[in-house]
TrEMBL record:
Natural source organism: Ficus carica
Superkingdom to which the source organism belongs: Eukaryota
Protein name: GDSL esterase/lipase
Region forming the signal peptide: 1-30
GO cellular component, one term: extracellular region
Keyword terms of this UniProt record: Hydrolase, Lipid degradation, Lipid metabolism, Secreted, Signal
Amino acid sequence: MAANKKHRLLLSSSSSSFILVLFLVSGVSGQSVTDPDGSAGGGGRREMVPAMFVFGDSLIDNGNNNNLASFAKANYFPYGIDFNGGPTGRFSNGYTIVDEIAELLGLPLIPPYSAASGDQALHGVNYASAAAGILDNTGRNFVGRIPFNQQIKNFENTLDQITNNLGAGDMARALARCIFFVGMGSNDYLNNYLMPNYPTRNQYNPQQYANLLTQQYTQQLTGLYNLGARKFAIAGLGLMGCIPSILAQSSTGSCSPEVNQLILSFNENVKTMLNNLNVNLPGSKFIFMDTAQMFRDILMNSRF
């Protein structure tokens, strides 16, 4: 599957993606990838990890909302205009960052949970859902969505299926080498804390809310660890004070320093949380992907 060259160049040119891959797979030997149909996966590259499991929101959803009663869908044009086969449910013209990382790892594109079955799940599953959040009530204005807690339950269902085929021992050893990519939190601000129809902003000041989110996030990531996950890539939040919906609320079209400060507080909490998890969960490796800095790099070093 091919995406627009310019789109993929932006992703590939980000040093963060390459550093992420090299860091996570250091010391892991490769083996060839074969898709269920017998073709080579990951563009013919060698498989650097057994699989990648993806959790998140619209930034990495690849079709899980397609059949939900939801206002958060992307299975129609102009989404997918540069993706081979057209719209898939990705909120993008082509690849998402997890598609690019999968290719760098020699894996085939990871299927959505809603469509993964049988051998398809052996290279990983994408559980991400647009409008989803760390908190279960986040995104309710979009009606249907799959919160992080439910995404983890869906992963448990996948584990049961794979364990029946591989056996518990082989499954545990393989899981310890897999990558768990998690990108959560943006909707907990955009479609919860900053929404006038939510009481959240009246209940918590910014730091209290960031603390609430990371307390829940800690429990959820620990839950994945208890299910066998060991290698985690955790994406921080970008500067959401500069996204179009926030810019449109400014009479001057300027970024919102207030919203950006909310995000920076959350990101700092997440960094501290990951440091603690690395210390307290034996054998784990949690890394923080600085999304805000990644896109600053792209903008400063872009070549068109």
